[in-house]
């Protein structure tokens, strides 16, 4: 009896991959990234970089994708084999100035109308790409439109009407994007949800949004939906994209995507006017999408955005950044995150550029290399991960490569920014920089798949100066932006040529900014959301009657018109001696060390600042290997006194840094401990976008915080871990608490005086 | 797991009846010098089932697999495969006849990529000779593309796209096992022999492997004979279990029957001799 139960079992499902690539930073895109280069003065195009171009992808045959193989081996270990490269000299602006955002979005004011425009005007241009059996498949706009038409009619045939909500759950897949447009075509509202949500959270969203239809990527997601449907109003229909493992499911409301498309074709044949009429009936003010925010407090809120909200914002940003229909982007961040919705969906429809879906979440880096996108968004974690990978592999490379890498990266760091700023640079440095581009930087960029990036954004969290310098040295046009779901993403963007380390840029077109008396940032724009679904109180709290939105972030606008974000307004607190305490400010400084993956600081209402540290298993593990420290698990590594020494040293550096700033001198970290587990979204300690939920952490680890604020040197702790299927387990540990050297305030003042 | 799905699955389990015999071994005896590895063992493997061979260390399980595979030749007894009595066979001949296997100790080409390793599983099906393949033109190319499609299907099935181009030697153990399974699958076997597919794996890797074995059986209808030490796994995924001890068959039946068999309990737990 028992034996077969396991077949479909979620118990046989792996716990979700929690690597950085799957966990974006979203929601509020507060960002304080050190600025970046906007334009390269010199660069070398290496022969191999041409291998990743578009045309090749379309004609690529099974056996010809070997291009990656030899590069694989040398990944991040640039070799002198690249010397025979074609070199192109570029100086100053090289951007193509032709504007191709040709569509009038007041006529084509909804997604389905835009789709019809694209199918007509650029029908043969690529719209979507996906890898099937190792070969990139391309759908042009005309084909996409056809698929969407069938899917829309299929949804109608299943009983989905205008106003119904369609949940979309899964990794980035063309069909899931199409289902979004299909739902919108018939007036239904797509509700993309995070694929790694635990059942409980997903259940809440399904209930709250009154979802009756869902499209899931595969069996895993279907299982989750079925599990939820036990305690809830059952869904009217579930559609699944990947039929694998689904043959034993007998529920009659499960439909394969193919069967829905079949049904749709039949329905379309029987009612030939239906689709066109439905599309014509869509209006710009209709709700286009509901995005559930991960919310640092309480239940997720459903942000309702209209077609006009999304399209107008996407259009404005596209025009400002001069996006072209020939651009291409890799859609690898969760579809539920508004950023992906704008970058990979709305802007693609407005501009007409091609969106590629990665083969699987694990292959993103390979896909990036093969596709060479020209438009790229990544939260700082991904840039950090990329850099860590590069560094680790460089350490494993032969000494000559290592020497070359370090030498030329140093050159790039030294004179790259100067060249970008147009500052005088000696002839020798220029030659070295040029050589470095041929030998190291060009091949490295190519290897990372970043050779063709014309526009890169990063946002969500602060990015470390080292990381920033690294990518700036590579010559990436990386910009910071600031935005939120409530704004349809864009609030501020750094304009070309004004990229500064400590700002998030100037207001995007048609965005008004205001700083409230308490320092909170307010904005008003065409992208301002309609409401929080079924939550008028929260709507009224966030959005004033005249359309201003409270961001909850404290910031100020400098003389140069750039916005600077300090912290979450509600997180800024005071130490007992009355000096200001901004946890995020300190934590960001801590997290700039690659060894520290997460930090939570406490100080509001305390005598001094103390910190919880999460170490980065990769970076510290690598370090431990070199030090001959053996460890079997994260816990063991985290408890090692040598690791404590390492972290203490780094905190002392942060303290020294803090001491230099008048306002922050009192915020030096006096005591810290390394947690025995990583803070995890499944345990409710982080949001889905990996931001710390301070209140929950403070509540759960109260004993530890008390111990930090006493003179104990050890503290016992029992923590609960939750697995994805809802099972829980407890972990016990005795954590060491360390004191860190603090330069006393007087000494600090003296030091400052001395420095002056 | 939802009850709904459980019910579906359970009813599917009850419906699993296999009548057609794919392979039967009759009175197989095998000895190495004075050691009797197998002593007149008989059992059958029916088409479409998952058949487990279990037993304590040294019970003769791997020898049995090697006999089926044609690596060892039994001293006595016969093997009937697909309805005909099989003459003495070399392993390559048995591979040609649709029997693929994995090994207890991973036997992959460590310097070759995952893709190339799995491609070697197609070796028995390649018709063009070495020279044609070296030319890589015309019919040879067309053939390679055909094989590559099958290999890509296997890669997709086993969800190893991310390691397609990674040399196998660099992969963690659990993934190497998966690649080895991939190579066996690439041969599109009728009978798949798995020698301790889950040995040395952590529980997560075991779960993955179980799921793949069941999926292979389910999606391609491949008959599977496996040796495994982890009893919970064996009891969960196999349709019928044969138990060997000191080269003799001591039990044969469904997991439940075997579990309650006194002889099996004695063999595993030991029995007091007083």
Which helices and strands occur, and which strands form pairs?
The complex is a heterodimer of chains A (756) and B (274).
Chain A: H1 54-59, H2 67-73, H3 111-121, E1 126-132, E2 135-140, H4 141-158, E3 165-169, H5 174-185, E4 189-193, H6 199-208, E5 213-216, H7 219-229, E6 237-240, E7 254-256, H8 257-270, H9 274-281, E8 287-292, E9 302-306, H10 307-321, E10 328-330, H11 338-351, E11 354-357, H12 364-371, E12 375-377, H13 380-396, H14 399-421, H15 427-448, E13 455-458, H16 465-474, E14 478-484, E15 489-493, E16 506-507, E17 512-515, E18 520-524, E19 531-532, H17 536-542, E20 549-557, E21 563-568, E22 573-574, E23 580-581, H18 583-591, E24 596-602, E25 609-615, H19 617-626, H20 634-639, H21 641-659, E26 669-674, H22 694-700, H23 702-708, E27 714-722, E28 728-736, E29 738-739, H24 745-755
Parallel strand pairs in A: 1-11, 3-4, 3-5, 5-6, 6-7, 10-11, 12-13, 13-14, 25-26
Antiparallel strand pairs in A: 1-2, 8-9, 9-19, 14-15, 15-16, 17-18, 18-20, 20-21, 22-23, 24-25, 26-29, 27-28
Chain B: H1 3-14, E1 21-32, E2 35-46, E3 50-54, H2 61-69, E4 76-81, E5 84-85, H3 91-96, E6 99-102, H4 114-120, H5 130-135, H6 139-158, H7 173-186, E7 191-195, H8 203-220, E8 223-227, H9 231-237, E9 240-245, E10 248-253, H10 255-259, H11 262-269
Parallel strand pairs in B: 3-8, 3-9, 6-7, 7-8
Antiparallel strand pairs in B: 1-2, 1-4, 4-5, 9-10
Helix pairs in contact in B: 4-7, 6-7, 7-8
* CATH homologous superfamily (4th level) name of the largest domain in chain A: ANL, N-terminal domain
Q: How far is the N terminus from the C terminus of chain B? A: 47 Å
Query: CATH top level of the largest domain in chain B?
Result: Alpha Beta
Order of strands in the sheet with most strands of chain A:
4-3-5-6-7
